[in-house]
Design brief:
With 446 residues, the chain is an all-beta fold. The chain is built from no helices and 24 strands.
Length: 446
C-alpha cells in the first residue's frame, strides 16, 4: 500500500536541534541578511484526503539566528464513521484543517545565553491512523470496519499540541567567549570552519542544557463514549554539538540525552517517564572535481521508559486484552519508531513499547551543478541540491535486553534535498516490509 505524507506543519518538532548559531552568506549584502519564503502546497494522504495549504518561512528578521514558520491547510470532505461496540452506526462527512506556528531560536531579551522556541499546532483529521498498541509484531488490519478490530485505530479527531523550549548555552567550548558562532557560507557551504568539527568533547563544540514544558491531546470524536489521550509534563536535556555546520555537517559528531516526566496533572492519562539518548557521526569523504560535499552520516538512538510496568494493566477491552498498562507512555513519546525521522518507510509512531533501539546510515552528496543558482526570476534562493541514499534498522520491545536485536525492522530509501532560505528541505521515499512512504519535511533527519 502506497502512502503519501506531507507534513509541513511538523517541520521543526522532531528535527529541532538545540544548537544556536548565525549563518552569514559572504556573497550577500549585510543589509539583506534576512530571507523569507511563502510556499503554497497541495497533497493527498490517507488521513486528510486531497489537501491544500500555504506555508511561510521567515529567517533572520527580528534576530539573525531566529526562524519563524507558519502554515495553514484544509482538505476535501471525506466520509467518516461513528462507532459503537457493535460497529458503524452513522456516517457523515468532515474535512481536515489545521494551523501551525513555530518560533525557533529567539534570544530572551536582556540575556546573552538564554534562548527560547515556541511551537504549537491545532489540527483536525477525518481519518487518523493511530497505533495505540503499536508493538513490533502487531498485526496491521486497517481494512476491518469494526472498531474492536482496528489496528491501528482509524477515526477522526483533533490532534493539538504545544511546547516551550528554554535553552541555555554553556560558557564552554566554542561558546566560551562567543555565544553564537558565526558560520560563513558560500552557496550554502561553510567556508570558515576548516578547523572545526570532531574536537574534544565539551572542550570544543557547543553545549546546551534545556527544559521543555509540553502538552499534547488527541481525540477520537466519534467513538462512544468520547475517547481521548492527553499528556503534559516536562522534558530536560543536554546536547553537545561538535560539528562544523549543524544544519548540514561535513565532519564531527553530536550527542543528546533527554529525560521526560508526565506528573499525571490535569488531563494526563497517567504518570510516566522516559529516557532517550542519541549520537550522530559525520565522516567527510574526498571530493571529486564535480562535487562540493560528500559525507557518510551515521546515527544511533535508543529509548527506555522505567515507569512502564507490563505486569499492571490499567484498563482492558471486552476480551480482557490490555489497552494501557501502568506507566505507559503515549504512542508519540518514549520508545517509538516510525515516521519522518526514524524508520521512514513506516507510519508515524507505528511501533511503541517500553524499550527501543535504532540505527541509520546515509550517504549525502552535493554536486557542483545547481540549475537554480543565479536564477534571478526565482523567488526562492536555492543554494544547493543534495542527493541521499539511506538504510535504517530498529526494534521496540517490552524489556531492554538482547531481544531488541531480534526480528528487527528494516527500510531503505532515497532523498532529494535543497537548501532554501538557509533551511534544508527534504523530499524522501522509503520502502519497508509494510509498504512505502513519501515525506516532505524541513531540516536534516539527524
Amino acid at each position: 500500500m502506497f502512502r503519501l505524507y506531507i507534513y509541513l506543519f511538523l517541520l521543526l518538532t522532531s528535527t529541532l536541534t538545540a544548537t544556536e548559531f548565525i549563518v552569514k552568506d559572504v556573497n550577500r549584502d549585510d543589509n539583506k541578511s534576512s530571507t523569507w519564503i511563502v510556499l503554497p502546497y497541495v497533497f493527498a494522504s490517507n488521513a486528510t484526503g486531497l489537501t491544500g495549504g500555504v506555508a511561510g518561512i521567515f529567517h533572520g528578521f527580528l534576530q539573525p539566528q531566529m526562524t519563524m514558520v507558519v502554515t495553514a491547510f484544509r482538505g476535501a470532505e471525506l466520509p467518516v464513521n461513528e462507532f459503537q461496540s457493535g460497529g458503524v452506526v452513522n456516517e457523515e462527512k468532515a474535512y481536515a484543517k489545521g494551523f501551525f506556528i513555530g518560533i525557533n531560536g529567539m534570544r530572551v531579551p536582556y540575556t546573552q545565553r538564554l534562548f527560547v522556541s515556541l511551537l504549537g499546532m491545532r489540527a483536525y483529521y477525518p481519518n487518523q491512523q493511530l497505533y495505540v498498541d503499536g508493538t513490533n509484531d502487531s498485526v496491521r488490519d486497517i481494512d476491518d470496519p469494526s472498531v474492536d478490530n482496528l489496528t491501528p485505530f482509524q477515526t477522526q479527531g483533533w490532534s493539538n499540541w504545544a511546547y516551550l523550549d528554554l535553552r541555555y548555552v554553556l560558557p564552554i567550548g566554542e561558546s566560551s567567549t562567543q555565544v553564537l558562532p558565526v558560520i560563513e557560507t558560500t552557496r550554502g557551504i561553510a567556508v570558515n570552519r576548516d578547523n572545526v568539527g570532531g574536537g574534544i568533547p565539551f572542550a570544543t563544540g557547543q553545549t546546551m542544557v534545556g527544559l521543555k514544558p509540553f502538552y499534547q491531546r488527541w481525540t477520537a470524536d466519534k467513538l462512544i463514549p468520547n475517547a481521548f489521550i492527553a499528556t503534559n509534563g516536562l522534558k530536560g536535556y543536554i546536547e553537545h554539538d561538535n560539528t562544523d555546520y549543524p544544519d548540514n555537517p561535513s565532519r564531527g559528531y553530536s550527542m543528546r540525552f533527554d529525560y521526560a516526566q508526565d506528573f499525571g496533572w490535569s488531563e494526563s492519562r497517567q504518570k510516566w517517564n522516559a529516557l532517550e539518548a542519541k549520537y550522530a557521526q559525520y565522516i567527510e569523504l574526498p571530493l571529486p572535481t564535480w562535487m562540493r560535499h560528500q559525507v557518510i552520516a551515521l546515527n544511533g538512538w535508543t529509548a527506555y521508559s522505567p515507569s512502564w510496568d507490563n505486569s499492571t494493566p490499567v484498563s482492558v477491552d471486552k476480551d480482557g486484552n490490555t489497552i494501557f498498562v501502568k506507566g505507559q507512555t503515549p504512542m508519540w513519546e518514549g520508545a517509538r519508531l516510525g515516521g519522518w525521522d526514524r524508520m521512514r518507510a513506516y507510519d508515524s509512531n507505528r511501533f511503541n513499547d517500553k524499550a527501543a533501539i535504532y540505527g541509520a546510515i546515509e550517504y549525502r552528496m552535493i554536486p557542483n551543478f545547481n540549475p537554480m543558482h543565479g536564477q534571478k526570476w526565482s523567488p526562492i534562493p536555492i543554494d544547493w541540491f543534495q542527493a541521499v541514499v539511506f538504510a535504517e534498522a530498529g526494534r521496540v520491545a517490552p524489556e531492554y535486553d538482547f531481544d531488541l536485536l531480534k526480528d528487527m525492522k528494516y527500510d531503505v530509501g532515497f532523498s532529494i534535498r535543497a537548501l532554501a532560505a538557509t533551511v534544508p528541505v527534504r523530499f524522501e521515499m522509503a520502502w519497508g516490509s509494510e509498504g512505502s512512504s513519501m515525506w516532505f519535511m524541513l531540516k536534516q533527519p539527524f
